[in-house]
Design goal:
- The structure is a single chain.
- The protein has 432 residues and is α/β, with parallel strands linked by helices.
- The protein folds into 3 domains: 192 residues, NAD(P)-binding Rossmann-like Domain (Rossmann fold, 3-Layer(aba) Sandwich); 89 residues, N-(1-d-carboxylethyl)-l-norvaline Dehydrogenase, domain 2 (Orthogonal Bundle), CATH 1.10.1040.10; 132 residues, Rossmann fold.
- It is 43% helix and 14% strand.
- The chain contains 19 helices and 14 strands.
- The strands form 3 sheets. The chain has a 6-stranded parallel β-sheet, sandwiched between helices. Strands 11-10-9-12-13-14 form a 6-stranded parallel β-sheet, with helices on both faces.
- Helix 1 packs across helix 3, helix 9 packs across helix 12 and helix 11 runs antiparallel to helix 12.
- Bound molecules: nicotinamide-adenine-dinucleotide.
- Nicotinamide-adenine-dinucleotide binds next to helix 1 and helix 5.
- The site of nicotinamide-adenine-dinucleotide (NAD) has 27 residues, from helix 1 and helix 5.
- Pathway: Nucleotide-sugar biosynthesis; UDP-alpha-D-glucuronate biosynthesis; UDP-alpha-D-glucuronate from UDP-alpha-D-glucose: step 1/1.
- It catalyses: UDP-alpha-D-glucose + 2 NAD(+) + H2O = UDP-alpha-D-glucuronate + 2 NADH + 3 H(+).
- Keywords: NAD, Oxidoreductase.
- Its EC number is 1.1.1.22.
Length: 432
């Protein structure tokens, strides 16, 4: 089966590489010439564990190009995996998806199935189908199927090769059959629905997870006020199978390219249909406040950060990725700088991307120790393993004042106490 994939971001490239790993011949298309040149030379333009290794392993079955016409014209299946970012009003920006749909319509010279992997509002697959049919340059049959993606950044390859489920939304049996063939070697449950239900499964899943995070964060905030410990509370809750023990980790809120935009897009869509999704709105509001929680806590220790060395550990929105989209650091660090802080930041993979946004005004450090040197306060924004494994004594020996504000609850309270540091985390007693 000849497969093409439009877009080589976290979803498109991982999809293409994993399909090649399962024996398909895949052409990956992107408009970004720099990315394509990198991939052609065997280098992944994004950081994801195992991605580059599998790109090299499957290089015989993988090709990369900006020539969409060549890639689409004789493909059996074309996946759309381009971005659907947030518009100012919260709705999804579908420009890239519609552009690809038009490019496909002008290029295809044989019957094919177009598979929409990008997260798109309910009803978009219908519009894509109409757009393709009205722009077809050749007399061919094009089916459109919805196949939303559930991978998490940081474990994208593992999540794709061992998917929790593969959702296929189709309006005709033929497209369903083709997708069953594409995924025949994937050992995952296949859920076949109509297209609108498939589109909704994606939004409902992401929004439910966002809601779970915001819920535990609110409980954490209350724990702090009344003297309970959120780690114990979450542990005790997680044994209940109806609740589950995943996504009960309190912190400074969710970020990334999906939860923030997918909550807002579904809320917008509901509003558009005169319906208010109150729970989703609450998840969004709680998250906005939670992002600033550490900065608010810092006021307990310093009225202002002016002239202070401030260590920032972790820049990315989660560990295992170099992605900064909607990372809490993007709002917090500019506020610290505005307050006059000397920000000294460390991240194992996110620095290059952060530098593109903030080339000046931040000292980028190549080790945690360097960031902590002479710092008056330290903020932990991402739970990287290197941070979790740091000897806590280092905060005391390297910092001017060992005040650690931990937005990801990386340490045990007893260890912080033993190390003799001030340790202020989320939903737990402050050690001082
Ligand atoms: P991304 O921004 O990382 O990548 C999108 C890529 O598409 C870019 O490389 C861009 O250059 C390319 N592109 C734009 N227009 C193009 C065109 N006309 N032809 C070919 N390529 C084009 O995006 P992403 O994070 O991979 O997300 C893609 C979609 O998948 C979004 O809808 C997102 O919501 C969804 N999704 C993302 C994740 C995730 O964790 N990132 C998980 C599940 C679903």
């Amino acid at each position: 089966m000849k497969i093409s994939v439009a877009g080589t971001g976290y979803v498109g490239l991982v999809t293409g590489v994993c399909l090649a790993e399962y024996g398909h011949t895949v052409t990956c298309v992107d408009i970004d010439e720099r990315k394509v040149a990198l991939m052609e030379s065997g280098i992944s333009p994004i950081y994801e564990p195992r991605l580059q290794e599998l790109m090299i392993k499957n290089k015989e079955r993988l090709s990369f190009t900006t020539d969409y016409q060549g890639a689409y014209k004789e493909a059996d299946v074309i996946f759309i995996g381009v971005g659907t970012p947030e518009k100012q009003d919260g709705s999804a920006n579908l420009t890239h998806v519609y552009t690809v749909a038009e490019q496909i319509a002008r290029s295809v010279e044989k019957d094919c199935v177009v598979v929409v992997k990008s997260t798109v509002p309910i009803g978009t697959n219908d519009k894509i189908e109409a757009l393709i049919h009205s722009n077809l340059a050749h007399d061919v049959t094009v089916h459109v199927a919805s196949n939303p993606e559930f991978l998490s950044q940081g474990s994208a390859v593992r999540d794709t090769l061992g998917a929790s489920r593969i959702v296929i939304g189709v309006e005709d049996e033929e497209a369903g059959q083709v997708l069953q063939t594409v995924y025949k070697d994937f050992n995952a449950p296949i859920v076949v629905t109509n297209r609108k239900s498939a589109e909704m499964i994606k939004y409902a899943s992401n929004d439910f997870l966002a809601l779970k995070i915001s819920f535990i964060n609110e409980i954490a905030n209350l724990c702090e006020i009344i003297g309970a410990d959120i780690e114990d509370v979450a542990h005790g809750m997680g044994f209940d199978k109806r609740i589950g023990d995943q996504f009960l980790k309190a912190g400074i809120g969710y970020g990334g390219s999906c939860f923030p935009k997918d909550t807002k897009a579904l809320h917008w869509l509901a509003n558009f249909h005169d319906y208010e999704l109150k729970t989703v709105k609450a998840a969004i509001d709680v998250n906005e406040n939670q992002k600033l929680k550490l900065l608010k806590k810092s006021r307990k220790y310093y009225e202002r950060l002016t002239g202070l060395n401030v260590a920032v550990l972790g820049l990315t929105f989660k560990p295992g990725t170099d992605d900064l989209r909607e990372a809490p650091t993007l709002v917090n660090i500019p506020l610290m700088i505005e307050d006059g802080a000397n920000v000294r930041a460390w991240d194992p993979v996110g620095i290059e991307n952060f530098k593109k946004l903030h080339p000046e005004g931040i000292t980028y450090c190549s080790s945690i120790e360097e960031a902590l040197q002479e710092a008056g306060i330290c903020f932990i924004f991402t739970e990287w393993q290197e941070i979790k494994e740091l000897e806590l004594d280092k905060y005391r020996t390297l910092m001017k004042h060992p005040i650690v504000l931990d937005g990801r609850n990386c340490y045990q309270l007893a260890d912080a106490e033993k190390a003799g540091i001030v340790y202020d985390s989320i939903g737990r007693e402050t050690i001082s």
